[in-house]
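Schema walk-through. Below, the input block comes first and the output block second. Nothing else is stored per chain. Lengths vary across the set, and this one has 138 residues.
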Amino acid sequence: MLLATLAVESLETIDVQSFVKSVDEDRLFKTVDKLSSFHTRNSLSPGHKEACDWLAGEFAKIPGVKVEVTPYTMPAGRRVPKETAGFQVVATMTGATDRVILMGGHIDSLNLDGDPLTVRAPGANDDASGVAATLEAA
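--- output ---
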């Protein structure tokens, strides 16, 4: 899971055209490509934590962004055979008021055609693209 919280004065203060023009397609592609390069980001695999650490490092490069990788416990369930440690990245950019825009994407990936620890799950659209959009917005 990835959450990036961006706080701004209000939606009315955002110059949408300037914001859209500032989106860098190359950066978006590079983020998706990097996340897809992990064999799997399945939350049960070591690749999940590695991807979280990489993403936290990318957010940390942005001035004014506070970032943390927070651990949590995934309870046993249909896709989690036993209680397992998981991680999420939370990036926060504070604005001039307490109004908040919450944007996020989930960093884990899933391939149901094999063992979640070994089957390839690049997850470009599950959900590296959402993560890339969140990073680019920050």
